[in-house]
Amino acid sequence: MASCGFSSIVSCLVLICFRYLATQATDPAYILHFCPQVINFTSTNTYESNLITLLSNLSSSINSSYANGFRTSESGRGPDIVYGVFLCRGDMSMDNCRNCVRFAAKDILDRCDARKEAIVWYDECMLHYSNVNFFGSGETWPAMPYWNPNSSNNPNNMDFGSIGLIYTLIDRAQRSDKLYAADQLENASIERYGMVQCTRDIDANACGTCLNNLTNRIGDCCKGKVGWRVLGASCYLRYEKYPFFNGTFVKTQGTVTGATGKGKVRTTAVFATVPAVVLTFLIGLCCYFSYRRRRVRKDAMSSGEIKGKTHGPLLDGGIMDSENSNNDQGMNYVSLQTVIAATNGFSDDNKLGEGGFGPVYKGKLPSGMDVAIKRLSRKSSQGLTEFKNELILIIKLQHKNLVRLLGYCMEGDEKLLIYEFMPNKSLDAFLFDSHKCKELDWEKRMKIVHGTTKGLQYLHEDSRLKIIHRDLKAGNILLDDEMNPKISDFGTARIFQCKQVEDSTDRIVGTFGYRSPEYALGGMISEKLDIYSFGVLMLEIISGKKVTRFFHKGKKHSLVSYAWECWIETEGLNLVDEALEGSYSPTEVTRCVHVALLCTQDNPTERPAISQIAYMLSNDKELPQPKQPMFTYCNALRNDQHSTSEDVYSINEATLTAIQGR
């Protein structure tokens, strides 16, 4: 470099890059192919002729208009019609895209000889044809995993840096015209790169659903791997420890091992064949700025800065002020050193409580911000799964009635989640305390009911994901300094697809007494499970009685069945907590008991949706008549192994639960 004058620095950088890269594109780097076991077509028949026409049309369609690296096409009619699509990686040049698609059009016939449907994936593009119209379907199928054989292979290790990056990219891709996003994760300990992309025959919402479904496969296929992909027909994900996009990427040699097949990865350095002068100038600039960025990052790391992929201003201690952020998907990595300082070395004086996840500490950042820090216990058998589940979910959820996750930390054996601090702890700390319950007058209790309703409505109907919480209870309703409720603890939550109605599980989680009959006895999961729990919670708020410790006239009783008796006798007025001392509105009490009984109906189809509940609570329209609940927790088989502990209050803590993987 010293032999080059200042005016020729770009040319020198170009020469360095040329020595690093090959100068001519070769065959695209094959990844995997998929040939479903469908009926083959007969050689020389009409279907074969239509298929050849289709592949020719696709491979010849990449011209100056280029279609931005994507096109659908069809050939023929009736039973012999063929549908096809190609998708080039979002950063590919026209020449590289053309080269890949033309190669794929020939290669797919060799790999899937005489098959009526086939998909083939390369680094640069994918090609899919079928005798069935799949346009606009948003298919996750076949969801084929593929991983870097040179990555680590510790099955108990999960690279959690991938979770925040992938979900950030999914959100970004949905706002992109190409339905494509790629970026780098930067923090104090790892360097990672991610990419997501969808075919553009689907809309942004379907793209998000497709990518989220593939993301749910990561834990099954890619634990212990720091280089992997999950490939679907309409979308795919990729995550590596080296840069592989923006035209310069390195292929890993070796045998690719996946759940469905094996193949050889050919080492191919790609260099776009566009006019030499323009290209060499651009590559020179890329090399230069890449060098500068790496140098700045190393300097920052050596000075002990906390680096997180953020989209807003950082407060002291490395946590983003998300109120001022333009992107609510920013996830912040916080160093262990900062956490230790904030908690005074995890001092017992800072300990707020302990749950199945592990202990929870109050922390204070150098800026003065108070936070609650969940620390995964090394002895916890379930906390790692809860950690992953909560991190995945809460990255995507932002609502004033949901607790805010501010950051996370993973260093060595330590795994920590950093939340906003709730000064009034949880609802159960007030509601079931003989002295503190008097601080909850009727107005505050209704404020908590309405706020919890809004939070649950966001989870079920208004968020980008459809979330079934599965453990809605007083201990998981946290209260801020103005007694506003915030739903917490998503360790046992289940993600549903937009149109999905129900699911099932063999392992029951959640808290004893809040489980609906169809879930407690049959493992059926739907949003009506949360509605049942919400109804029980309302009865607790009205009565001040804990569902799992309810006694009436000296005998163990069901709070739900007792509420029904009170409804028959006095329309629920004799259910009211004595601490309210007549300060309540009888009309409001009657309506709330009425709604709670509708929520706890035995038949889930007879329970209202959360939007209907919000409407019922805010006006005086006539309500349907509830039926007598026949199911009570006294009649259900109790399995203590899968029940939560009710001996301590929940103070910003996780629940003792058994986790069922999705």
List the helices and strands and how they pair.
Elements: H1 9-20, E1 30-34, H2 46-60, E2 70-75, E3 82-88, H3 94-111, E4 118-122, E5 125-130, E6 144-147, H4 161-174, E7 180-186, E8 191-198, H5 204-215, H6 218-221, E9 228-231, E10 235-240, E11 254-258, E12 262-265, H7 276-302, H8 336-342, E13 351-354, E14 359-364, E15 370-375, H9 383-395, E16 405-411, E17 414-420, H10 427-431, H11 442-462, E18 466-468, E19 477-479, E20 485-487, E21 494-496, E22 502-504, H12 517-522, E23 524-526, H13 527-543, E24 551-552, E25 555-556, H14 559-570, H15 586-599, H16 610-618
Antiparallel strand pairs: 1-4, 2-3, 3-5, 4-5, 6-9, 6-11, 7-8, 8-10, 9-10, 11-12, 13-14, 14-15, 15-17, 16-17, 18-21, 19-20, 22-23, 24-25
